Amino acid sequence: MWLAPITFFKLHKLNIAVIFLYLLFTFIFTFPLFLHISTFTPMADGQGDQFQYIWMFWWLKTALFNLKTNPLYTNFVYYPCGTSLIYHMPIFLSLLALPFQYLFGSPANLIIGYNLILVFTFVLSGFGVYLLIKYLVKDPVTAFICGLLFAFCPYRLWHLNHINLLSTEWIPFFILYLIRSVNERTLRNFLWVGVFFILTFLSDFTCALFLVLFTLIYLVYLLVKVRKRLKDKKVIKNSCIALFTVIIILSPLFYSLSSTKIAWQPSIDELGHYSANLGGYLLPVKERSLLGGYFLPSQRDYNGVAGGELFLGYILIFFVLYTWIKLRKEKIKFWFFSSLVFLILSLGHALHIYNHSYYFKWLPYNLLYTYIPLLQIGRTPYRFSLMVTFCLIIFSSYGFTRFFNLSHAQNKNLSDLKNFFQGFLVKKGVPVVIVLLTCLEFIVLPIKLIRVEVPECYQEIKNMPEEFAILERPVFSRGAGLRGNVYMLYQTVHGKQVVNGYLPRPSYHSRDFLQEILPNDQITLDMELRDKLAKNNVKYVTYHEEFDRPIKELLKIEDIHCFTIEEEPASVKVFKTF
Fold it and tell me: Where are the domains of the chain?
């Protein structure tokens, strides 16, 4: 029994080494995050959206174990109206964060949980691609490099504050077992396909949509090229069992999604703003490149989404061209044409080329947007670019293997650790050079971090035993996104209901009370406003400094006796309404 760990290590030492290497690269690419893992979080786009997900981690635990209520609905934000969380809650990620909430004090428990889950997505995204490529081309060195290209691609590094969009780790596992299911026809493989789809769906609906579309493309390919496999009775039986299992498990969420109406849908103009720019696939932007300076365009020079998120990398572009020229196998062309499908979808309804835009009604995304409800709550066609990168990595993996000239004879033992490291020395160490160049292409150091701080006044509010709500001010001001997200972070400490909320897709009427009491984000805390708040059990109003405008310029208090708490330095003041 005590020999079991040793035996496991001997059997899987290569996989363990690969996981360790991806972990090492994660520390490098996210430096200096691991030095401040309990006090800072990544700050990619300036909106602080990571605080939404930290709040959801907290809310799942609070709803399930403290309030014994449905975690997919809350009136702890947008009080008293409440809102559905079906479009926001990353259920699987929130479950992963549960243990950390019992191990550490607040808010460090949630910060550590977020940052470690972030690391988890990088390591598993790389390792999943490694296993997929190793299965397809039988070359661990190529597999490792391809995993590196995917795990640390610009799309993922751009979304460090969106833990749901970082949850790409199940995509390669799903596709690996989808291919194995068709090749090996075993029920076990089909069930693993279902498991990885469920994990994806419970982490991010966008990634789940990618898997559905990829599966449809793969089915079309099989119908055209190897129809006999789809007619196999074993394949039909096992796929039906797996599909039925997935539907049964996810049916409550499907019903909730179909029955929940949201208060916001993007306009056509917004879809254009979040559509991919073709030039972005070929050029990085100077803000996120070591080249920088005058050599590259700025993110602001593009229409739509630029190379900060889309850039494929010159290493990948070179090997895509090399593979297309050197290899003409039908089975690998599938990956190239799949990437074209996702590239066309990423264009949205407009063709953006650098700073020029051309609008076409016939682009496929318009049809999907019209007939697929899930797309109608989104606004980001460019996210299909992740699958463009993914499919091109799989396509180019065959070129990598050809370029390195690693044959089956050289790699009979694919699990041998020594062979793996020796493989990086072929062709005078070209694989090592490719790894280094990949890092130079994609790395942005140091990454932006934001310190997580909660004013002391919220500890005092937490210790008040009665139940009441809080109104945070300002609400609709400049920087409302960051401010609204930070208010939700504060709630994880004080635990009281708040009138505010900052969710991209709240339910209908969720903001009615907020807009009724603050139609113009009025500053004066007059008697009329205090009466409205008191009737709804909103006991405290907090005022925060608004960037360069100090509190003394923001406040006009008619009743000075409502003052209760003042933070030092005076960046927060709390007033009692009744």
Answer: 170-254, 269-404, 454-576
Interstrand relation of 73-74 and 83-84 (parallel, antiparallel or unpaired): antiparallel
User: What's the predicted TM-score (pTM) here?
Assistant: 0.91
Looking at residue 412, the DSSP 8-state letter turns out to be: S
Rounded to an integer, what distance in angstroms lies between the CA atom of residue 90 and that of residue 205? Answer: 9
**Residue-level pLDDT at 510:** 80
> Tokens 């292409």 label which residue?
441
pLDDT tens per residue, range 525-534:
677 778 888 8
Q: Are 253 and 86 in contact (CB under 8 A)?
A: yes
Q: How many Cα atoms occupy the beta-carbon half-sphere of 295 within 13 Å?
A: 8
pLDDT, one tens digit per residue, over 86-109 is: 988 999 999 999 999 988 777 889
Helix, strand, coil content of the chain in percent (nearest 5)? 60, 10, 30
Report the interhelical angle of 140-151 vs 426-442 (nearest 10°).
10
Residues 6+ apart with CB under 8 A from 450: 40, 41, 42, 43, 48
**Three-class SS of 335-376:** HHHHHHHHHHHHCCCEEEECCEEEECCCCHHHHHHHHCHHHH
User: What percentage of the chain has pLDDT greater than the value 70?
Assistant: 85
Give the separation between CA 437 and CA 491, rounded to whole angstroms.
44
3 state SS for 56-100: HHHHHHHHHHHCCCCCCEECCCCCCCCEECCCCCCHHHHHHHHHH
Q: Which residues pair with 472 in a beta bridge?
A: 542
- For the chain, report the end-to-end CA distance as a whole number of angstroms: 66
More confident residue, 80 or 175: 175
